[in-house]
Design a protein that fits this description.
By secondary structure, the protein is α/β, with parallel strands linked by helices. Helix content is 38%, strand content 14%. The strands form two sheets. The protein has a seven-stranded mixed beta sheet, sandwiched between helices. Strands 8-9-12-11-10 form a five-stranded mixed beta sheet. The structure holds pyridoxal-5'-phosphate.
Length: 389
């Protein structure tokens, strides 16, 4: 009963793993076995060794594939494990065109690890399609997109980038961590590989580190299966279970968080003490229309800028509700300081070029009552500025 006819919300619950066929258990059993007894001398069963295939991980991988509209999903030990494994599709001499405000860990992987293996890269502002086209070389193998981007929430046209990639015989990778398939389906827009930090919205409770890759093309699926098994950075079974547990509420969590994010973005935008708000759900966002076209809405992450680093420090010290931490996409609101957290691995000049100043804060909106959050931020802003005078 996989029910292709059901809506996304229903399919989160009513899918192939709805109950265990052997016992009827309504939660996917956690299979700890690392190896599987074989009954024949020379022909072996579907499962032989836990790194290659495990039934618990398989259940999660099938769900991920289904939700993204792919044919194959892969669960990894972290988002970076998923991203790094996908980059193993490349070979020495290949070139990557990558969005300049990419996640800090991906920036580090490309500039400090792939570069040692003879894989070259060009960072571009992917909202500028001419710049992307100009950056493509004979040996370009991947166009790497993150949209909306982190932390300045720029929106990249996935369809347009995929077309440039196809014309040039390259793959399009899309990091879909910020929106998840509940809000954006990159494979349907022409992407080849969808990547996730499942640590964030997919699992949603700040209690598991996990990653995912999903593809539509079967040949690419076979290549990634080979790489997942070769590199071996698979997700453990307990963690697979936690991601599946989190997925059941993905849709309702996002609905609530997005509603609150819109409210908060409007609140910050009209607040005289907030210098700038970054949120693709605001009408004056430069890619507001594109965001509405390629995604269901603008998601639950926004950034805002205060007047100085010192004011930002005081503000953070006065905020009570959100946790002040790295990461995003959880039931609790998370306030982070990109310059020192997610983008700490990026040199200061590179950060500033990307608009990641020392007075920029990122907010991942959780499930608290948004009015409580607004009251908390109002107090903090008032306090910050009154102590300065
Ligand atoms: C967190 C994050 C990653 C890295 O994922 P991990 O699970 O921390 O390894 C990659 N991309 C984006 C957009 C992220 O937010």
């Amino acid at each position: 009963m996989s029910g292709d006819c059901f809506s996304f919300e229903t399919r989160l619950l009513h899918n192939k793993t709805k109950f265990d066929p052997t016992t009827g258990a309504v939660s996917v059993p956690i299979q700890h076995a690392s190896t599987f007894h074989q009954t024949s001398f020379d022909t072996y069963g579907k499962y032989d060794y836990g790194r290659s295939l495990n039934p618990t991980r398989e259940a999660l991988e099938e769900q991920l594939a289904e939700l993204e509209g792919g044919t194959k999903g892969f669960a990894f030990a972290s988002g970076m494990a998923a991203i790094s494994t996908a980059f193993l599709l490349l070979s020495k001499g290949d070139h990557v065109v990558i969005t300049e405000d990419v996640y800090g860990g991906t920036y580090r992987m490309v500039t400090e690890v792939l570069s040692r293996f003879g894989i070259d890269y060009t960072f571009v502002d992917m909202t500028d399609l001419h710049a992307v086209q100009n950056a493509v070389q004979m040996n370009t193998k991947v166009l790497y997109v993150e949209t909306p981007s982190n932390p300045t929430l720029k929106v990249t046209d996935i369809t347009a980038i995929s077309q440039i990639a196809k014309r040039n015989g390259a793959y399009t990778f899309v990091d879909n961590t910020f929106l998840t398939p509940a809000l954006q389906k990159p494979l349907a827009l022409g992407a080849d590989v969808v990547l996730h930090s499942a640590t964030k919205f997919l699992s949603g409770h700040s209690d598991v580190v996990a990653g995912a890759a999903i593809v539509k093309d079967e040949d690419l699926g076979n290549q990634l299966a080979f790489l997942q098994n070769s590199f071996g950075a698979v997700l453990g079974v307990q963690d697979c279970w936690l991601v599946m547990r989190g997925l059941k509420t993905l849709s309702v969590r996002l609905q609530q968080s997005v509603q609150s994010a819109i409210k908060l973005a409007n609140y910050f935008q009209q607040h005289p003490l907030v210098k700038k708000v970054y949120y693709p759900g605001l009408e004056d966002h430069p890619q507001f229309e594109l965001q509405n076209k390629q995604a269901k809405n603008a998601g639950a992450v926004l950034s805002f800028e205060l007047d100085s680093e010192e004011l930002t420090r005081r503000f953070v010290e006065h905020v009570k509700i959100p946790v002040f931490a790295v990461s995003l996409g959880a039931v609790e609101s998370i306030l982070s300081y990109p310059a020192k957290m997610s983008h700490g691995a990026m040199p200061k000049e590179e950060r500033e070029k990307r608009g990641i100043s020392n007075s920029l804060l990122r907010l991942s909106v959780g499930l608290e009552n948004p009015d409580d959050l607004i009251a908390d931020f109002s107090n903090a802003l008032q306090h910050t500025y009154s102590t300065v005078k």
